[in-house]
Write a structure and sequence with these properties.
Number of domains: 2
Structural class: alpha+beta
CATH architecture of the largest domain: Alpha-Beta Barrel
Largest sheet: 9 strands, mixed
Helix content: 25-40%
Shape: globular
Distance between the termini: 26 Å
Bound molecules: 4'-deoxy-4'-aminopyridoxal-5'-phosphate
CATH superfamily of the largest domain: D-amino Acid Aminotransferase, subunit A, domain 2
Order of helices and strands: EEHEEHHEEHEHEEEEHEHEEEH
CATH class of the largest domain: Alpha Beta
Oligomer: single chain
Amino acid sequence: MTRTVYVNGDYLPETEAKVSIFDRGFLMGDAVYEVTSVLDGKLLDYAGHEARLARSLSELGMTNPISAEDLLAVHRELVAKNGIVNGLVYLQISRGNAGDRSFVFPDASVPGTVVLFTQAVPDLDWPTASKTGIKVIAFDDLRWGRRDIKTVQLLWPSMAKMAAKKAGCDDAFFVMDGVVTEGSSSNAYIVKGNKIITRPLSNDILHGITRAALLTYAKEAQFEIEERAFTIEEAQNADEAFVTGASTFVMPVVQVDGQPVGTGAPGTVAKRLREIYLDEARKAAI
Ligand code: PMP
């Protein structure tokens, strides 16, 4: 089925949607994005994604070409037009078409390019991986220093995923200065007893919307939270490990750099946290 996508005010079949070759998102990676999950036709954690988008744009000195009200309406319209029950809405805003290639930002009068599209994922709530867990490798974190801004510069994370795949694994834990920063497209956690350990927020990691929501729910469920960095060895010796992301929710990690974590099977804490997250996120979905 041909999807209906959104480009700068228009709903179009995906085969007819066009962006200029001079677009700074294409030439310079000068664009930010968000991915919002859809369950039962409703948007999860939408307010968080909207707030982070505003922050990413502001950190890069970009003005948002679309109002908050219109952006929510476009999300909902695309979900409806494409009959999405479970899936994702991808949103990207670039600094627009500068009409030429230059390192210098175009004049503020050049409008940004707004693109949104959907992806149907019928088993988004409980995919096989959420039951079997995933295997991760350790991978040098060679990304730029502003990982708190959600830019489309995803080449290093893509290289990390390819290295993981080559090693017969699913994903990577990025490592910088001897400690884990985050997953290649997720925030990383370990569990010791009743304690959930995850790196504190800084420019070194993306401020995950799922992370923020999950930590709140986990505190309410009487888990202890310790925000500090951990090593690969610590993850290998932890009771459990898991990652969070808007499209993966809470995903158990059963192997870290060749070593099984805990029993080598998904743990009870990760399973419980996934259930809690899904319950709460569904209740708050719009
Ligand atoms: N870190 C990185 C590097 C990511 O790409 C993502 C997913 N976009 C996350 C963390 C998780 O963030 P969120 O929960 O907002 O999807």
